[in-house]
């Protein structure tokens, strides 16, 4: 019997993601990968996969899968209802051939992660199975009728007594390390500390756009722009209108607007989960929050 699941519905967006393809910025290729790596790694452990196995990143729920084989499934990230043949189930869970798994709307965040025993075994590109929405590398966004092959299970699922869901706080405090172009701004640390923003509905896997306080440039920098230079994940780029953008996993590898600071990797998962309208403040010069199982990554 072929190990696979069939996609019956996707919701707004469902993507194959692993921990990405860092190290290819010189080719113009962003790192991509799950926006919430700890949630994907946890889901994989719960079904006995290596932490970096490919799973599914599901935006705002709505995914429906039919199992074509017996498999274990874990759903992590924000609290997300999971039903098997219409019956609510706790994660992790088991699917028999023909069982239909349907995910509801997550509460407290945007993206849940689905791991299946054996991992999603689509072809890798540049060492990763991740869908990259900017460059087009990797598998296309899932569509009804897609059949996803699964690998052979190799590990033992890890049980948990309580699966603690991710929840974005009422006010998201984001640490940021100043530079490399903080000298383009008047009192950059003071502006970041005093400013108040909300997460815009114009964000995606490329970056989180913020509305609120406009960051002011030094008088001698007003009206000027930089030649394009390299960008890393977490870069806080400030266009001429002063509205910051925090770049996420599918970001461009170069840009011409000044980068006032960089958000550390451990703080990015919650940014990737922040719904539009979430209040946000920056904390310049402070370390990122630690989350159990956090996957550290870089673009280099």
From TrEMBL:
Q: Which domain of life is it from?
A: Bacteria
Q: Which UniProt keywords apply?
A: ATP-binding, Hydrolase, Nucleotide-binding
UniProt keyword annotation of Nucleotide-binding present: yes
Q: Which Gene Ontology molecular-function terms are recorded?
A: hydrolase activity
Q: Which residues form the Carboxyltransferase domain?
A: 26-297
Q: Which InterPro entries match?
A: CT_A_B, Cyclophilin-like_dom_sf, PxpC
- Show the NCBIfam families listed in the entry: urea_amlyse_rel
Q: What is this protein called?
A: Allophanate hydrolase
């Amino acid at each position: 019997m072929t190990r696979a699941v069939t996609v019956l519905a996707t919701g707004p967006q469902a993507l194959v993601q692993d921990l990405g393809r860092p190290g290819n910025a010189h080719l113009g290729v962003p790192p991509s990968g799950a926006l919430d790596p700890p949630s994907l790694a946890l889901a994989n452990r719960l079904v006995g996969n290596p932490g970096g196995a490919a799973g599914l990143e599901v935006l705002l729920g709505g995914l429906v899968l039919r199992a074509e084989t017996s498999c274990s499934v874990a759903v992590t990230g924000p609290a997300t209802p999971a039903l098997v043949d219409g019956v609510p189930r706790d994660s992790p869970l088991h699917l028999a051939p023909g069982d239909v798994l349907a995910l509801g709307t997550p509460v407290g965040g945007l993206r849940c992660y689905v791991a299946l025993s054996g991992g999603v075994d689509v072809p890798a590109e540049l060492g990763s199975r991740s869908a990259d929405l900017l460059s087009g590398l990797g598998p296309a966004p899932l569509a009804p009728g897609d059949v996803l092959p699964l690998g052979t299970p190799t590990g033992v699922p890890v049980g948990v007594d309580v699966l603690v869901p991710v929840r974005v706080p009422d006010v998201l405090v984001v640490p940021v390390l100043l530079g490399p172009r903080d000298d383009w701004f008047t009192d950059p640390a003071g502006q970041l500390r005093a400013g108040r923003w909300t997460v815009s509905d114009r964000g995606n896997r490329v970056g989180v756009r913020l509305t609120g306080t406009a960051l002011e440039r030094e008088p001698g920098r007003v009206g000027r722009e930089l030649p394009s230079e390299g960008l890393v994940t977490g870069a806080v780029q400030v266009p001429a209108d002063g509205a910051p953008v925090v770049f996420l996993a599918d970001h461009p590898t170069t840009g011409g607007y000044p980068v006032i600071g960089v958000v550390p990797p451990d703080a990015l998962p919650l940014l990737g989960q922040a719904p539009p309208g979430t209040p946000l403040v920056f904390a310049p010069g402070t370390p990122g929050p630690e989350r159990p199982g956090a996957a550290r990554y870089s673009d280099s």
